[in-house]
Structures are given as C-alpha cells and as structure tokens.
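Reminder to self: tokens first, then the designed residues, so the page reads top to bottom the way the pipeline ran.
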C-alpha cells in the first residue's frame, strides 16, 4: 500500500504571519520564523517537513493563499 508524503511551499514575501496555518496543521509542521520578509512580517515556514502528510489544511485556511501543497505517493 502506498503512503502519501506531503510538502508545502510558502510565498514568504506575501505571507503576513497571521499564524492561522500554524494552528490548522494537525502534524505541527509549520511555525513562524524569527526573520522578517520585506514587509516586516514574520513569515510561516515548514519546520518539520518530514511530518507533512499533504492534508492541505494550511492552504485552505490561509487568507492570502500563499501556501502551495504538494503530494507524492511513496511505496513502503
């Protein structure tokens, strides 16, 4: 049976650091950085990328649509 592995990509220059995606992630993959983007916001980034299942919760709740989710089937 194939397992699904996920990955997210955040458009860091458009992220406003609202943290909605952080609380929406069931695997606790996302956190805000200490760095800021050009607009002065702390932006979201994957900190536990290996735990991502590609559930898309983060992309669905993002008010600015800055998160892209990718899924890949991995054979065990």
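Designed residues (76 positions):
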């Amino acid at each position: 049976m194939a397992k699904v592995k996920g990955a997210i990509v955040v458009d860091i220059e458009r992220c406003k650091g609202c943290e909605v995606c952080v609380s929406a992630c069931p695997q606790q993959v996302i956190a805000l950085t200490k760095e800021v983007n050009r607009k002065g916001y702390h932006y979201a980034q994957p900190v536990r990328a290996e735990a991502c299942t590609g559930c898309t919760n983060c992309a669905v709740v993002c008010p600015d649509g800055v998160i892209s989710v990718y899924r890949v089937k991995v054979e065990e």
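The chain is about 15% helix and 40% strand.
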